[in-house]
Amino acid sequence: MKDLPSLIAPIVLGIVEGSTEFIPVSSTGHLILTERLIGYEGRQAGISDVVIQVGAILAICWLYRARLWSVVSGLSSDADARRFSRNVLVAFLPRSWSARWRMISSSAFRCTVSNCWSPLSSR
After folding, report:
1. Of 54, 89, 94, 101, whose CA is between 20 and 30 Å from 119?
2. How confident is the model over 82-104, as pLDDT tens digits?
3. How far apart are CA 33 and CA 22, in angstroms?
4. Selection from 68, 102, 73, 74 nearest residue 88 by Cα
5. Could you give the CA distance from residue 22 to residue 60 in angstroms, rounded to a whole number?
6. Which residues contact 82 (CB under 8 A, 6 or more apart)?
7. Rounded (10°) angle between helices 8-20 and 43-63
């Protein structure tokens, strides 16, 4: 099962993603485990992951399209729509700040390590 053709592996991964998206398990985790199980790795696997995840996000948006439209159209007049939008934005803050912190701290650490160890490696 390690040599699935390039066209069959994304189909299998799509089925795994679709069957685990709406149950309380990590669909991305199952996607990664399935990739490893079938030996689907490399750049093409990464591209397939992105496409499958975008498809899952679009499916969720389609499923909740009426709710999303009512929120967007009611932002100026509906307090519930404004509260929902605020809560969604607040929910994204920890992730955005953690990503920024990780980027800043890794850059600072990389500079510190290169400054500290560069003279030693040239000796």
Report:
1. 101
2. 998 899 888 877 766 666 666 66
3. 18
4. 68
5. 9
6. 75
7. 40
Distance CA 84, CA 70 (A): 11
Please give the Cα distance from 69 to 83 (Å, whole number): 15
CB of 12 within 8 A of CB of 31? no
Backbone angles phi, psi at 122, to 5 degrees: -85, -10
3-state secondary structure string, 1-17?
Answer: CCCCCCCHHHHHHHHHH
Query: Nearest 5°: CA angle at 58, between 56 and 64?
Result: 105
Tell me the C-alpha distance between 47 and 44, whole Å: 5
